[in-house]
Write a structure and sequence with these properties.
Elements: H1 9-21, H2 26-61, H3 67-75
Helix pairs in contact: 1-2
Length: about 90
């Protein structure tokens, strides 16, 4: 894929300065930045989709846990009392 970007001159100068300080090419700095952005945005989209699916499931079934139930369970993590998550209820 051959891609070109119109980059603001101030941003371009910042990228060039960062690349020089890190002894890297500007292309590698920009590629890394784009990869990090895409990974974060993919994770955000995945989280949003999971959230929507959970909300649909809750509306259909009414099954849920309270904050107190989850908090109490999480406090056991890493202890001898650690166990399975509490069961969902309506």
């Amino acid at each position: 894929m051959d891609t070109s970007l119109d980059i603001d001159p101030k941003l371009e100068a910042r990228i060039r300065e960062l690349a020089e300080r890190q002894q890297r090419s500007t292309d590698s700095v920009m590629t890394e930045a784009i990869e990090q952005y895409v990974s974060r945005d993919e994770a955000r989209v995945s989280f949003d989709e999971e959230e929507e699916a959970s909300w649909r499931d809750y509306k259909e079934t009414g099954l849920h846990l309270t904050l107190d139930e989850v908090s109490a369970w999480l406090k056991t993590w890493g202890t001898d009392a650690e166990g399975d998550p509490p069961p969902c209820h309506t």
